[in-house]
Amino acid sequence: MRRFLYWPAWLGLILLGAVGTALAAPPKTVLVLGDSLSAAHNIPVESGWVHLLGDRLTKMEPGWTVVNASISGETSLSGRNRLPALLAEYRPSVLVIELGANDGLRGLPLGPLRDNLAAMIDAGQQAKARVLLLGIELPVNYGPQYRDGLRAVYAGLAKDRHASLVPFLLDGVALKPELMQEDGLHPVASAQPLVLDNVWRALQPLLR
């Protein structure tokens, strides 16, 4: 005798609902808030490390998308002012903060820089985002005291706020003239994959 298995109607509705929810799940977002180092300054946008990150996520971490909210010339204060609206709009799972270089190049006091970065980290964490802070270093003519102080800002915030950290975004790039543009501040297009690799090592664990 052939037996038939009957599913209760309510169980079928639950299963259909679960499938529908999975299919309708929004993509998980990485929001990048940075300056010209993340805004593909003077190179094609598709060559920039943030765009390359989007390509890598498509291949290696399906379901993730990247929003690049970086603006050339951005300071920590202007980024702090823009961030609440960005968090409300994109609701990122990961927030990448790459700011402070323009504050440093202008020789601005490090106290306000630390306050602005701390406020952005706090805002991201309060919005349930995991935060990755990208540190930057200044040319040697800024003097060891200011340069060491800038390093300490990033390291201290990462420790105090339990945020992930890339100590120096341009590690392995900045001291190689062939990888830098004529201004000595921005990497050329061919160096962008190296910049991405610096970010990726700290970012990938945050995607799990």
How would you describe this protein?
By secondary structure, the protein is an alpha/beta fold. It contains seven helices and five strands. The protein has helices spanning 9-24, 49-60, 76-90, 101-105, 110-126, 144-161, 192-203; strands at 28-34, 64-68, 94-98, 130-134, 164-166. The protein has a five-stranded parallel sheet, with helices on both faces. Helix 3 packs parallel to helix 5 (110-126) and helix 5 packs parallel to helix 6. It is globular, with a radius of gyration of 21 Å. Mean pLDDT is 91; it is low at 1-24.
Keywords:
5 strands; globular; single chain; 208 residues; disordered N terminus; alpha/beta; five-stranded parallel β-sheet
Chart the SSEs and their pairings:
Blueprint: H1 9-24, E1 28-34, H2 49-60, E2 64-68, H3 76-90, E3 94-98, H4 101-105, H5 110-126, E4 130-134, H6 144-161, E5 164-166, H7 192-203
Parallel strand pairs: 1-2, 1-3, 3-4, 4-5
Helix pairs in contact: 2-7, 3-5, 5-6
Helix content: 40-55%
Q: Report on the biggest sheet.
A: 5 strands, parallel
Q: Tell me, what's the shape?
A: globular
The overall pLDDT, averaged over residues, is: 91
Unreliable residue stretches: 1-24
User: How much of the sequence is in beta strands?
Assistant: 5-15%
The class by helix and strand makeup works out as: alpha/beta
Radius of gyration: 21 Å
List the strand order in the largest sheet. 2-1-3-4-5
Q: Give the CA-CA distance, first to last residue.
A: 49 Å
* Overall strand count: 5
Could you give the order of the helices and strands?
Answer: HEHEHEHHEHEH
The DSSP helix count reads 7
